[in-house]
Every structure is written in structure tokens, then in C-alpha cells.
Amino acid sequence: MVSSPEKTAPSALPEERVRYFPVEAGHSDYGRSTLEGEEQAAYDRLAAGILARAEEVELTLSGPEKLNRILLCIRRDYPIISWMSNQYSYRHGPGGGVFSVHLEYTKSPEEIARETQAVWEAGQRLSANLDPGLTEFDRALILYDRLCGAVEYDRFSPAQRELSGALVDGRATCEGYAKAYQYLLSLAGIQALTVYGEAEEPHAWNILRLDGEYYHADPTYGDVLLSDGRVFLSHAYLFLDDRAISSSHTAYQDERNYPVPLCSAGEADYFRQKGTLISAASREELTAGLEQALGLALANGYNAVQIRLEGEALPFCQELLDSGELDGLMVERGQARGAEISSRSFDEHTQVLSYLLE
């Protein structure tokens, strides 16, 4: 696991930054924590320059080959930065190890100001009334639910891969979802990062830190689209460890990612925390888990009742599904609470059984 060294405050920034970036919230320090010594000092100067939209930033580095890594960490720590070009150049400065980095931008100062303000306002709306006294688990869960409810997956959205696409337009693909969740978590004081890899196709998701331990979360997979066009909110890919996520997600192990932390705790697993993880071949445990999941769905306005199966519960529940007994039990429990069950689905990667509500 990567440790987080003490962060030194960057030097004072020009008034221009204050005008275009009125808040310091909404970014992570994780990428910076993976750097060392002179790299962190260069990170601070470059980040300050980029946020002030400086064209030239002078750095002291033992070699220019570190610039790509430093810029990658800045981009990942500040998901708001969508307007910096991938192109940059550098020249040797007046002394040994001194470089002048020339930066390029794809948007005007006025466009940056409008986008930043719109993102900030959207972030404030989605994180409104979030009690700071809540646990990190509860804050992260509320923000996940709100984000999934506010964004629609759309491959044709102009800003589909950006923070503004998710938060302002409400239409994004996986990268937009992940950047938005990272941003919202950072606003709530929770360290988070965006991870790039494969999940049947190129994909992006999050790792976040809850009570000192790291977990995977995939808000894109929180919006499940069914063949009939309906969408339901799923928690199947929320707060998973490396073992649980590995059956469906593989992070890139190259320059497309910074070093990602180990996610091995498992204690904050959503279903374990909510009492809806079924592990025994027991009708009593299964019934209690379904009742708990149904109560959660009704209390929170979820449109799906979800339990996760493991161990002996998997073959046991499969038999009950084959016989129709489990479906009948769920319909009966739903009717007793005034809820109608419309259909079910099963995620083989996470062993999450979902019953959709009308």
C-alpha cells in the first residue's frame, strides 16, 4: 500500500487562479503521494501554474523524463483539468537541472471559468446536506447513489469523458462517471482516485479510502441497463477488494496508471455492512437477508432489492431459483410490504441477485 507523506503547501498563486478556480476542494492528493522529493516540489509548481493557466513554468528536476509522470499525477488528482492539452514542450533553463516547461490549453480563460463554476455548483448540489458526522462509508454511499441517479450513460455526449459531462450535462461514459465520483468524494473529505483498465473493454472506475483502507467502486456499473430499456441502481460493484473486482476488472500496469494501492480489507463491503450477504444454506438466513434488502430498497427509494451470495448459499439458492421457490418467496415478501416484483437478474462476477421493483 502506498503511504501518504506530509504535503507541503504550494507557493502563493496569482489572482488569476482565484478568479478561475474559486475553491481548493475537489481534488485528491493520492497521485502526489506516489512521487518523491524533487518530483513533489515540481508537482506543486506545475499544478499551481496549470490552475493559473500559466504558459511557462520553471522547474528543478534531475531529468526531464519525470515530467510525463508528474503531469499524469496532476491530471488524475485534479479531475477538473479537462482543458490542458496533452502537448507540452520544455527547454533547459539557466542552471543545471532547471527546465522551463511550456504548457498548452484547449479552452479560453472565459470557457474555463464557466466550466469550473458550473462543475462547482453541480458538485455542491449533489453533496448538499451531507452530514459531516456521518461515517465515511455512509457519505460515500450517499454520493454514489446521488451520482448514479443524476447521470445517464451516453457514448455520444460531447463531454462524455469529462467531469463536466457527468456533473453538468448529466451524460457521460465510464471516465466521466469515475472523475465525477472522485470529485464528489474529495468534496466530502474522502481520498479517491480514478483507475484505468479493462472490463470487457477499456474502462475506468475508482478506488477510495474508507477508514484508512482502500476499496474499489464502479459507479458506471451502478447504472444497470436492461434489455427492455429500464435502468436500476445496483450496489454490486461498491466497496470491493482486489479479489472481488478481479473477476471482471483488470487495471493497466503501465504508464496509463499511477501505482494503485492494494485493496485487501473487505470490511466495508456494501452487502456485509448492510446485512444482505448470505453465506449459509439456510432458509432462515436467506429470508432474513431478503427482508433486510427489501427494507433498504423501500426506505431509500431503490428500484431493486439486492443480496450477495457466497459459499454454501450459492448452490443452495440456485436450487431454490430452479424450483421457483425463491422467486415465490420474494414476491410474497414484497406483497406483504406493498411492493411488486417485476423481474430478477444475477451478476455472475459478484454473485449479486437483484429483484426489480415496479
Describe this structure in words.
The structure is a single chain. The protein is built from 13 helices and 16 strands. The strands form five sheets. It has a five-stranded antiparallel β-sheet with strand order 11-8-7-6-12. A four-stranded mixed β-sheet has the order 13-14-16-15. The model is unreliable at 1-23 (pLDDT under 50). It is elongated. It has helices spanning 15-20, 30-33, 37-51, 67-77, 109-126, 136-150, 163-169, 174-187, 242-245, 270-274, 283-300, 313-323, 325-336; strands spanning 56-60, 84-92, 98-105, 152-153, 171-172, 192-198, 202-210, 213-217, 223-225, 231-233, 238-240, 250-251, 277-278, 304-309, 341-347, 352-357. The chain is α+β, with helices and mostly antiparallel strands and 358 residues long. Strand 15 and strand 16 form a beta hairpin.
Summarize the structure.
This protein is an alpha+beta fold and 358 residues long. The chain has helices at residues 15-20, 30-33, 37-51, 67-77, 109-126, 136-150, 163-169, 174-187, 242-245, 270-274, 283-300, 313-323, 325-336, and strands at residues 56-60, 84-92, 98-105, 152-153, 171-172, 192-198, 202-210, 213-217, 223-225, 231-233, 238-240, 250-251, 277-278, 304-309, 341-347, 352-357. Helix 3 packs across helix 4, helix 5 crosses helix 7 and helix 11 packs across helix 13.
